[in-house]
Specification:
With 359 residues, the protein is an alpha/beta fold. The protein has two domains: 231 residues, Rossmann fold (3-Layer(aba) Sandwich); 102 residues, Rossmann fold, CATH 3.40.50. It has 13 helices and ten strands. A six-stranded mixed sheet has the order 1-2-10-7-8-9, with helices on both faces. Helix 1 packs antiparallel against helix 2, helix 2 crosses helix 6 and helix 6 packs parallel to helix 8. One of its GO terms (biological process) is L-cysteine catabolic process to pyruvate. It is found in: Cytoplasm. Its cofactor is pyridoxal 5'-phosphate.
């Protein structure tokens, strides 16, 4: 009797992932309206239109491909992750597509809404009382069941091929080729794992572009202070309100050497910005998109002050429907002690005058 070739399953699994990528094609690059006399174009790469609704769709696909080509994921392998957010949703989607079990370790305080998204795609949640233990518990589970720990916070920067393979950076530059400023002055992204900023930072260097990469960082996150001080062990011990970005520690996948600037952004500014986005473009996005916009506005104001023309690119990370009970809920805003009015006024002044008040 012929022994089945385990690589045959792997080859078919990779084909299935590539077919999914071909079906969903690429995401749109929208224009955010700015006064034409500024001579600056702002683009929004809309990652919310992926099948699982967020930028993390790309990361999940890359992480699973990385496990497949390294021989770590085989037929029947249980996939394990430490995530209660969009990454886990996307990983559950791909695991279901490949007929694999998926378990994600989540804090017991994780919202029922997030759990429903993960379970919709056949994923299971394993709860821990102490959120700081999600990494160690994911490692333990993977060892116990001979599974594979996807480990987004360590592997994100190496799982994505920064040279091409239709990564997000290659996609952005291809879509800009016919624009008046095809090589952007700035690309602005948040950092959750750090994988997206590493991909952009490496790609622009590889392609010898003059483009600079800025990371925007919400309150309670470790990236700004860690990058500024050069401390990769910097921690805050506090969670971010802005889901999907910001971490209580500098994660292994955050590569500070390929980043040109890190901009701290107040949470109230992020949440004010998504309201402006919805009013001016009808795009409905989560708070991390607002953080991106605030950073982009600051850099555009700096360009205007210096008499520069050019383009800036940032991301719509996910859709706003996931945040009706939080980021778009006035009662939740009040419960967090946030006042959006001053930040909204600052954004409105910028869009009218091109000046950004840093007060």
């Amino acid at each position: 009797m012929t022994t089945p070739d385990p690589r045959e399953w792997c080859r078919d699994a990779i084909r299935v992932l590539e077919a999914d990528a071909n079906r969903s094609a690429d995401t749109h690059l929208h224009v955010f309206p700015l006064p034409p006399e500024w001579g600056i174009d702002l683009y929004l790469k809309d990652e919310s239109v992926h099948p699982t609704g967020s930028l993390k769709h790309r990361l999940a696909r890359s992480l699973i491909l990385y496990g497949l080509v390294n021989g770590r994921i085989r037929k029947g392998t249980t996939l394990i992750e430490a995530s209660s957010g969009s990454t886990a949703v996307s990983e559950a989607y791909f695991a279901q597509m490949l007929g694999l079990d998926f378990v994600t370790v989540v804090p017991r305080s994780t919202s029922a809404e997030k759990i429903r998204f993960i379970e919709f795609y056949g994923g299971r949640c394993h709860y821990v009382d102490d959120p700081t233990q999600i990494y160690a518990e994911a490692e333990r589970l993977a060892s116990e069941c001979s599974g594979y720990y996807l480990d987004q916070f360590t592997l994100a920067e190496r799982a994505t091929d920064w040279r091409g393979n239709n990564n997000i950076a290659e996609s952005v530059f291809a879509q800009l080729v016919a624009e008046r400023f095809p090589i952007p002055t700035w690309i602005v992204v948040g950092a959750g794992t750090g994988g997206t900023s590493a991909t952009f930072g490496r790609y622009v260097r590889y392609r010898r572009h003059e483009t600079r990469v800025a990371v925007v960082d919400p309150e309670n996150s470790a990236y700004y202070e860690g990058w500024k001080s050069g401390r990769t062990d910097y921690t805050t011990g506090k969670p971010s309100r802005i889901e999907g970005i910001g971490r209580p520690r500098v994660e292994p996948s955050f590569i500070g050497d390929v980043i040109d600037e890190v901009l701290p952004v107040r949470d109230a500014a992020s949440l004010a910005a998504i309201r402006v986005l919805r009013e001016r473009t009808r795009h409905w996005a989560g708070g991390s998109t607002g953080t991106n916009l605030v950073g982009a506005f600051q850099l555009i104001a700096r360009m205007l002050a210096a008499g520069e023309r050019g383009s800036v690119v940032t991301l719509i990370c996910d859709g706003g429907a996931r945040y009706e009970a939080t980021h778009y809920n006035d009662e939740w805003i009040t419960s967090q002690g946030l006042d959006l009015a001053p930040e909204r006024a600052r954004i409105d002044r910028f869009l009218a005058t091109g000046e950004w008040d840093l007060a």
